[in-house]
Amino acid sequence: MKKILVVSGHTDLQHNSFANKIILDRMEEIMPEAEYVYLDSEYPSWEFDIEREQNRLRNADIIVMQFPFFWYGVPSLMHKWMEEVFVHGFSHGSKGKALVGKKLIVSFTSGAPEEMYTAGGVQGYPVEDFLIPLKQFAKACNMEWAGYVYSGGLSYASRHDDEKLRQMKEKAIAHAERVAEKVKSL
Description:
There is one protein chain. By secondary structure, this protein is of the alpha/beta class. It has helices at 13-16, 19-30, 39-42, 50-59, 76-85, 132-140, 162-184, and strands spanning 4-8, 35-38, 62-68, 103-109, 144-151. The protein starts with a strand and ends with a helix. The relative contact order is 0.18.
């Protein structure tokens, strides 16, 4: 059985998330065998236990990074985690072989609807174009890019509209199920 590590990079999952919280809760229901790391609650001071995090990564076969799309990339907490945990000699460089062959799945949401992330759309580019740094991150760390799961139109700002809330909940649950399907296909 493959070992799955799911890392939540939301900066305040309990108080400022709707969709990512639902996604992660559903993932825990359908993939209870996975290890879940909630960076915001485990490291509220943003001071990481580097050895612990590196061991988690070493022990995983599949790594899922779950986050809301903030300013066209990962949230600041997840970015800091990446900077401090994925260091030369561990994840890359001539001696950095700890992650060779591990599969990376990126799972993310945006408040903006999917149609805004198209060539000529409001955001100007397809969502795939914004993933190039993460693809290169996987390549630099000798991980296998296993793709992504993306859902747009999941805006925390809409949480007070009952109909939008219902639609977003359904979409978030479907997102979690797509992540689980992708994991199981590897």
